[in-house]
Protein backbone atom coordinates (compact mmCIF):
# COMPACT_ATOMS: atom_id res chain seq x y z
CA UNK A 1 0.00 0.00 0.00
CA UNK A 2 1.33 3.42 -0.94
CA UNK A 3 1.89 6.29 1.47
CA UNK A 4 -1.13 8.58 1.73
CA UNK A 5 -1.74 11.94 3.34
CA UNK A 6 -3.67 11.08 6.50
CA UNK A 7 -4.29 14.71 7.46
CA UNK A 8 -3.55 18.31 6.56
CA UNK A 9 -3.90 20.46 9.66
CA UNK A 10 -3.49 24.24 9.38
CA UNK A 11 -1.62 25.63 12.36
CA UNK A 12 -3.31 28.25 14.53
CA UNK A 13 -3.29 31.52 12.60
CA UNK A 14 -2.02 29.65 9.54
CA UNK A 15 -4.38 31.23 7.00
CA UNK A 16 -3.68 34.67 5.54
CA UNK A 17 -3.86 36.63 2.30
CA UNK A 18 -1.04 38.56 0.57
CA UNK A 19 -2.32 40.58 -2.38
CA UNK A 20 -4.19 38.09 -4.56
CA UNK A 21 -2.52 35.00 -3.00
CA UNK A 22 -3.85 32.84 -0.20
CA UNK A 23 -1.37 31.33 2.24
CA UNK A 24 -1.90 28.24 4.41
CA UNK A 25 0.73 27.04 6.88
CA UNK A 26 -0.10 23.42 7.64
CA UNK A 27 1.26 20.12 8.92
CA UNK A 28 0.92 17.22 6.48
CA UNK A 29 0.88 13.83 8.22
CA UNK A 30 1.96 10.90 6.04
CA UNK A 31 1.02 7.28 6.65
CA UNK A 32 3.71 4.67 7.25
CA UNK A 33 3.75 2.92 3.88
CA UNK A 34 5.82 2.83 0.72
CA UNK A 35 6.27 6.11 -1.12
CA UNK A 36 4.41 6.10 -4.47
CA UNK A 37 6.50 6.17 -7.64
CA UNK A 38 6.60 9.69 -9.03
CA UNK A 39 5.38 11.38 -5.85
CA UNK A 40 2.32 11.97 -3.71
CA UNK A 41 -0.46 14.07 -5.32
CA UNK A 42 -1.32 17.29 -3.49
CA UNK A 43 -4.88 18.57 -3.76
CA UNK A 44 -5.47 22.32 -3.32
CA UNK A 45 -8.76 21.76 -1.50
CA UNK A 46 -6.85 20.10 1.39
CA UNK A 47 -5.44 23.60 2.01
CA UNK A 48 -8.79 25.39 1.56
CA UNK A 49 -7.92 26.63 -1.96
CA UNK A 50 -8.99 25.92 -5.51
CA UNK A 51 -5.46 26.01 -6.97
CA UNK A 52 -1.84 25.83 -5.82
CA UNK A 53 0.98 28.01 -7.13
CA UNK A 54 3.68 26.45 -4.97
CA UNK A 55 4.27 24.58 -1.72
CA UNK A 56 7.29 25.49 0.39
CA UNK A 57 8.71 22.78 2.65
CA UNK A 58 9.73 23.97 6.13
CA UNK A 59 12.32 22.39 8.39
CA UNK A 60 14.47 19.32 7.94
CA UNK A 61 12.19 17.29 5.68
CA UNK A 62 13.74 15.64 2.66
CA UNK A 63 10.72 16.44 0.52
CA UNK A 64 10.10 18.85 -2.31
CA UNK A 65 7.06 20.07 -4.22
CA UNK A 66 7.08 19.41 -7.97
CA UNK A 67 4.79 22.16 -9.26
CA UNK A 68 4.69 20.83 -12.83
CA UNK A 69 3.28 17.47 -11.69
CA UNK A 70 1.53 18.84 -8.55
CA UNK A 71 3.10 16.16 -6.35
CA UNK A 72 5.14 15.98 -3.16
CA UNK A 73 8.36 14.05 -3.72
CA UNK A 74 10.59 12.52 -1.03
CA UNK A 75 14.31 11.90 -1.24
CA UNK A 76 16.56 9.66 0.85
CA UNK A 77 20.21 8.76 1.15
CA UNK A 78 20.73 5.02 1.54
CA UNK A 79 24.30 5.29 2.80
CA UNK A 80 26.24 8.04 4.56
CA UNK A 81 27.76 10.46 2.07
CA UNK A 82 25.81 9.14 -0.91
CA UNK A 83 23.70 11.30 -3.18
CA UNK A 84 20.01 11.74 -2.48
CA UNK A 85 17.68 9.54 -4.54
CA UNK A 86 13.92 9.42 -4.99
CA UNK A 87 12.23 7.51 -2.16
CA UNK A 88 9.97 5.59 -4.58
CA UNK A 89 8.99 2.29 -2.93
CA UNK A 90 10.63 3.18 0.41
CA UNK A 91 8.67 3.20 3.68
CA UNK A 92 8.16 6.86 4.66
CA UNK A 93 6.27 8.09 7.73
CA UNK A 94 6.67 11.74 8.50
CA UNK A 95 4.95 14.96 9.45
CA UNK A 96 5.93 17.80 7.12
CA UNK A 97 5.23 21.48 7.79
CA UNK A 98 4.49 23.36 4.59
CA UNK A 99 3.52 26.82 3.40
CA UNK A 100 0.97 26.39 0.60
CA UNK A 101 0.55 29.41 -1.68
CA UNK A 102 -2.40 29.48 -4.02
CA UNK A 103 -5.71 31.06 -4.94
CA UNK A 104 -9.47 30.71 -4.56
CA UNK A 105 -11.53 29.41 -1.67
CA UNK A 106 -13.15 26.03 -1.32
Number of helices: 0
Quaternary class: single chain
Helix content: under 10%
Number of strands: 10
Protein structure class: mainly beta
Give me the Rg, rounded: 14 Å
Describe the strand arrangement of the main beta sheet, using strand numbers. 1-2-10-5
Mean pLDDT: 82
First CA to last CA: what distance?
A: 29 Å
Described by the principal axes of the CA atoms, the overall outline is elongated
- What percent strand? over 45%
Largest sheet: 4 strands, antiparallel
- How are helices and strands ordered from N to C? EEEEEEEEEE
Uncertain spans: none
Question: How many structural domains in the coordinates?
Answer: 1
Structural commentary:
With 106 residues, the chain is mostly beta strands. The chain has one domain (5-103). The protein has no helices and ten strands.
Which properties best describe this structure?
mainly beta
Briefly characterize the structure:
0% of the residues lie in helices and 55% in strands. With 106 residues, the chain is an all-beta fold.
Task: Summarize the SSE layout with pairings.
Elements: E1 5-18, E2 21-30, E3 33-34, E4 40-41, E5 51-57, E6 63-66, E7 71-76, E8 85-86, E9 91-92, E10 95-103
Amino acid sequence: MATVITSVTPIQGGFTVFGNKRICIADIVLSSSTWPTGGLPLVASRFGMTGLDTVLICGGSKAQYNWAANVLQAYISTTAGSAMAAADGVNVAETIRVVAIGYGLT
